[in-house]
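Task: encode each sequence below as structure tokens.

Item 1
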Amino acid sequence: MKMKQQFQRLALLAGAAMALTACGGGGGGDIELNAGTVTTINDNSTNTSGGGSNNPCANYADPVTNTRKQGSFDGSNCVYSTDFVGESNPLTVSLTIPFISGVHIFEDSLFVGKNVDGTNASETVPQDGAGPTLTIRAGNRLAWTRQDDYLLVNRGSRIVAEGTATTPITLTGFKDAVSRNAGRLETQLWGGLVINGNGITNKCSDTQRTNRTCHVLGEGKPSNYGGNNNAESSGRLQFVVIKHPGFEVAPGDELNGLTLNAVGSGTVIENVEVYSTYDDGVEFFGGAVNVNKLVALYVGDDSIDWADGWVGTVDRALIIQAENNGDRCIEADNQEANHAATPASSGTVKRMTCITSGAKVPIAVHGDSMGVEMRRGTRFKLEDSILFDAHAITRLTQIPGRCLRVSDSGTATAAQAGNSHVKSSIFTCRTATSNGTNWTTVFTNGDSVQGWATNVGGRYPANTGNVVITDSVNTNVRVLDSYFTATAFADAAGTAFTVAPANTGGIIGAVRRSDNWTASWTFGLDTLWF
């Protein structure tokens, strides 16, 4: 951006900030700009350019031009033009984004590290932290001005975004963070967060992985992922809130809240919220990364989605669909083009609470609301979880879909052989299960999905401790207290029952009132529709 244009942009931002101050915070926006008492100092800035000697904005030494680049400070916010970083101008050196009480505003995508697509035989893919690292200090708010811009971490690079319960990091759109007039369920204000890793995807062969010639094209603007290191670290995300993301680049090519492309298990992701997303909440394409303590609130498509050989675990996931939107709490695939591709997807979800809304197409954008769908040859483990549809019926007068669906014979055959299991889970749904997309039996021995889940005839000993309640709106039923796990369970007859947890810690469902790990850092749980 030319200097005159930059000054004009800053003047507009300053005017907006003054207007917000005069209005006592402005109307309708859903982000608080007061970041508390965090005093993290900009530890990589020499404060020699940009907005003068008191400029607190992020800066770095450009190795190409041998100049220092820095964001422009308007007295409240830092603005980063395309010249600072962008789609065609990725970061090639490490950068720290220091804490400010205002907002870090990006006028282009923030791409970390160079993408390697395999077209240059002499160019090797950076591995396991060899690329630059983006560090975001606790309490920061980052916002993007355009809906097709997003934050991308390329292979070999890292993101270190370590917030705290009292000073979370927020990634969102300009309309939310600065204009402050984003609607509660508004989406597509910006693209979202994408991390590309060197992990294993079954879209590449063993030879490609061994020779480091695996270059799978990701969704969104062209970038590549995949390799042979499922233990790689792409950094850390802790106490991070991703708000109003997702963008439909092209039909069928949609950015998610958090996209994890072949990301390795050395990456730490815990206490993360995805809020009001257009497409999926968290989507895994291969890799082995784990997610601990996830809140997926008002996700337009699937809250958790995996494919292409992902073998990680999601532990403690609180999923609540919007009253007029939301497809599945979990959609799990192996590979769309080849259901038998190896290594097969084998995801684990434990201690999940899934609250469906019953929203249906055409009101729902991507599909009819339901709980869990396993398909296209995936293996899966679902443990210590609660699936619940009663709010949809009693509060919204909508009829939800199934709690659990196994959609094809390949997925069912693997489950029948003991490669998948469901245990210590409560299915509280008017329609608990279904057998395939055409409502036909998918198990070769004639068993239904519900029979499989409840260990009919003792044929599925791994499926233990599951409870099915189909009269989910009966006032005798006690499963949840709001979105918290009830302190005592009762079925439709009012009969108390217990569920022995499959995992250590004695927890069924995502969160209890007595151990509320969502407190203080999450957004929107105090304004739910039920």
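Item 2
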Amino acid sequence: MPDQTTHKSELNRLAALTEKAELGGGSKAIEKRHNQGKLTARERLALLFDPHTFVEMNQLAESQAIDFGMQKKKVPGDGVIIGYGSIDKRLVFAYAQDATVLGGSVGTVHGRKICRIMDEALKVKAPIVGLFDSGGGRIHEGFFASKGVAGMFYRNTAASGIIPQISAMMGPCAGVSVYSPALTDFIVMVEGTSQMAITGPGVIKSVTGEDVTLEELGGAKVHSEITGQAHIVAKTDEDCIQSIRDLLAYLPSNNEEFPPVVQSRDDPFRTDSSLEEIVPADFRKAYDMRKVITRVVDQGSFHELLPRYAKNIIIGFARMDGQTVGIVANQPIFLAGCLDVNSSDKAARFIRLCDAFNIPLINFVDVPGYFPGVKQEYAGIIRHGAKMLYAYAEATVPKITLALRKEYGGAVMAMCCVGMGVDQMLAWPIAKLVVLDTTTAVNLIFRKEIQAAEDPDEFRDRMIKAYDHKYSNPFHAASNMLVDSIIEPSQTRPALIKALDMLKTKKRAKPFRRHGNIPL
């Protein structure tokens, strides 16, 4: 039987190991991070979770490597902190890489720890957050480290569509470290201090001769504006953590639950006559669709994603009478709201995410079609545009579409109309739901008659008016049950909330196949 002295000895040993684990790479390394304007991994986790709720797991796990001097570099925790706790009183799991320990590199034990916490999150179906700050795979451990890295990818895929996965890039991340975030639902980056790249500037310089900095190669600006991989850009570590907490507030814990409902202080029956002023009846005039969205949803609730990428379409979360909804909207001030390769990809992935997590979709439509041109055709607009068709047709959550002005051509289907499984199709009185805009249609239909007319311009104008009166209006669509209701713009908010309320008990269809084959 151990005596009291033994107890004290072992408790002292535990305290020493715990202290070493909590110091990570040491006080000097921590001070250096603070001087760079960065928080430590532990400080980040403390901000992420509700106070005093975080429970750390496997704190004393350490690298078992002995080659290349690794036996002298053992640190309890092995450069990553894993655990669970509460965020807004809901269970969430997390891991945070500690760049003060071997640069946050992913070694064998490091990878095993992350895989362990991912397994726990999936086991109890709770969201998982990854705070990345890593130089990549730990080359000191050779091929052994690859199992943990590959295991992360495998678990990211297994958890996809079952639990929300959020990645925060909080430092320079290169090589294999960037693939796991790419497999998650959301990526948040910090302006100026976080980068993502498969190959570093040095290798690129030696192979291609290109001279580029890591920031130019994979900074927040690049991934939020060019590649479309950074959903949110934060200015500081603190802003980044708050962005994650805000995002989680819109999401359910898993695919079997519904998103949290908050108490709304906004009148569900609030009308807004300013919408008629915001949206010009003259289709040649542009406007900012965000102004429509923010006036229709619960005040202050719109949370846009990827605002700098493919700006001709808007996606994001909002609340309607306290209920989370996904917003997909054309943006007339960019490319006239046309769909193209990037906007189709952006929207399709968001639609599928909402469907995975029981989030109803509301579509604000003002679209003249797909953006024309050789460049778009060569870029694969057919297969990229088909992604939106596939995503909407596949989605089983409530789908509500509102036509504000233009709904032309194949883009009508891409924005979810009757025939694509829309549950409620609404339209404003000025909306035009047609295959082509009136002028183009008349020029094609009456080409010979226009040429033969004594006054071609007068004849064309007369045919345009006749076509508009008969076809280019929502009344013709409503008479054919292609529009369920024509509503006054001021009534948009109450009409959408009533439709959402009616669709609350919509049942998801049971899967009848393993999965479909979405276009690339």
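Check on item 2: The first strand starts at residue 55 and ends at 57. The domain at 4-248 is CATH 3.90.226.10 (2-enoyl-CoA Hydratase; Chain A, domain 1).
End of task.
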